[in-house]
């Protein structure tokens, strides 16, 4: 077994520091502690099929290899990027023969989400009969990328991105192997860990690059930025990161936390998100979560959208930032949104009820004979400009879908609705 502090200089630093025991794995104590899911499996001396879901560089491959060693299983690694059906058949056949000889197999499939649905189905019989213990690794949300049948036979374990303490622990180990400290001042050391963005492998690759620099003078953050190639934040605008960050932006706005909303929008833009997607989502927010509490919100949203399309990047992003500030500080109401949902539900429940005849036009003699338009009162001819007639279908009780809140402009709408209600009640009383 390779020692943690292997000083063989012919291999990359990240490989030389790869843990040789599960106790050396950092940042995943919630899975590996004695009372955690993997800890309990190991204590029982058995291994179930699992999906390891987590960001790059958090230790998925290392954990799988060490699990196989701990429970005495043959470790068979495959990458879904480079493997196909023929490779899987060879592995399954070898695992079958191994099982007949009394030995088990842990099949580790990296980036398992890359296999298509039919290929994923191919795992099922071998997982079910115990030919292999399947450990799949993925950076993508398994509920989106993996077959339900496969997921039902496996436990999904979520690995965390490495936090500041875990990354610092890796840097200390690296410096121990290298035999000297990295040429960084405290601020640059913090900036290095921030640049790694929770990816331990990336951090160690940067550390190996920095170890070749002179020990003096130590780098400050500006010098560090010049010395290394800063990578883009982890964000896949076609997958779960896209949905997570837009959800964070939307909910921050709903919670009137303008600063948090600005941060999430900046994260999305830094990750390469299409600004027009953000503009569309902000416009949706204006009508869904602000509505008539501030009727100007949707006007501001459309204006910001238009400004971005006219200016482009980077100037146009300022219009989106201005819109985020406006929406974040505006009064909130979903009353119009809920009113529409209620009306849609009622329409589905009541089917094809006809409008009351008195509000139907009667362009033909037959329609007049059937009573279309009979008794209709032209509202503008009444003293208040309000007849109070019934406009719901006959046989359907009057419903109140729209319930404005006492915030923003909807406070004025509350007064208007109360006025019409009083007139309606008065007219109904006079008609009795």
UniProtKB/TrEMBL annotation:
Q: Which UniProt keywords apply?
A: ATP-binding, DNA replication, Nucleotide-binding
Q: Which SUPFAM superfamilies match?
A: P-loop containing nucleoside triphosphate hydrolases (SSF52540), post-AAA+ oligomerization domain-like (SSF48019)
Annotated GO molecular function terms are:
ATP binding; ATP hydrolysis activity; DNA binding; enzyme activator activity; single-stranded DNA helicase activity
Q: Which residues form the AAA+ ATPase domain?
A: 46-164
Biological process terms in GO annotation:
DNA synthesis involved in DNA repair; DNA-templated DNA replication
UniProt cross-references to InterPro entries, sorted A to Z = AAA+_ATPase, AAA_assoc_2, AAA_ATPase_RarA/MGS1/WRNIP1, ATPase_AAA_core, DNA_pol3_clamp-load_cplx_C, MgsA_C, P-loop_NTPase
What protein family is recorded? Belongs to the AAA ATPase family. RarA/MGS1/WRNIP1 subfamily.
**Primary role:** DNA-dependent ATPase that plays important roles in cellular responses to stalled DNA replication processes.
Name the UniProt record assigns to this protein: Replication-associated recombination protein A
What species is given as this protein's source?
Answer: Magnetospirillum fulvum MGU-K5
């Amino acid at each position: 077994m390779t020692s943690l502090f292997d000083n063989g200089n012919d291999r990359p630093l990240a490989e030389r520091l790869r843990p040789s025991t599960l106790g050396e794995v950092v940042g995943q104590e919630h899975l590996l502690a004695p009372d955690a899911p993997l800890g309990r499996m190991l204590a029982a001396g058995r291994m179930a099929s699992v999906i390891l879901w987590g960001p790059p560089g958090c230790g998925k491959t290392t954990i799988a290899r060490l699990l196989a060693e701990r429970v005495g299983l043959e470790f068979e690694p495959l990458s879904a990027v480079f493997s196909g059906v023929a490779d899987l058949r060879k592995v399954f056949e070898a695992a079958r023969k191994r099982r007949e000889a009394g030995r088990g197999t842990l099949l580790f499939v990296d980036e398992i989400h890359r296999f298509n649905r039919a290929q994923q189905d191919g795992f099922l019989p071998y997982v079910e009969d115990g030919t292999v213990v399947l450990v799949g690794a993925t950076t993508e949300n398994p509920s989106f990328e993996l077959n339900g049948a496969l997921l039902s036979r496996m436990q999904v374990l979520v690995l965390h991105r490495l936090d500041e303490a875990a990354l610092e622990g890796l840097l200390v180990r690296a410096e121990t192997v290298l035999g000297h400290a990295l040429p960084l001042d405290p601020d640059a050391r913090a900036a290095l860990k921030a640049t790694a963005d929770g990816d331990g492998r990336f951090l160690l690759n940067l550390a190996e690059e920095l170890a070749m620099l002179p020990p003096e003078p130590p780098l400050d953050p500006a010098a560090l930025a010049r010395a290394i190639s800063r990578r883009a934040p982890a964000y896949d605008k076609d997958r779960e990161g896209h949905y997570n960050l837009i959800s964070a932006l939307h909910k921050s706005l709903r919670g009137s936390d303008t600063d948090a909303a600005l941060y999430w929008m900046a994260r999305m833009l830094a990750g390469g998100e299409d600004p027009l997607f953000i503009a569309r989502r902000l416009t949706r927010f204006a009508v869904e979560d602000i509505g008539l509490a501030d009727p100007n919100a949707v006007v501001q949203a459309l204006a910001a959208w238009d400004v971005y399309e006219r200016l482009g990047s980077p100037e146009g992003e300022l219009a989106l930032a201005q819109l985020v500030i406006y929406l974040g500080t505006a009064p909130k109401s979903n009353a119009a949104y809920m009113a529409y949902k209620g009306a849609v539900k009622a329409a589905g429940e009541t089917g094809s009820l006809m409008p009351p005849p008195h509000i139907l036009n009667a362009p033909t003699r037959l329609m007049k004979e059937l009573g279309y338009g009979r008794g209709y009162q032209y509202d503008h001819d009444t003293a208040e400009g309000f007849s109070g007639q019934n406009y719901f279908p006959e046989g359907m009780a009057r419903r109140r879908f729209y319930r404005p809140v006492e915030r923003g402009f909807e406070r004025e709408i509350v007064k208007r609705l109360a006025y019409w209600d009083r007139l309606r009640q008065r007219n109904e009383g006079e008609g009795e």
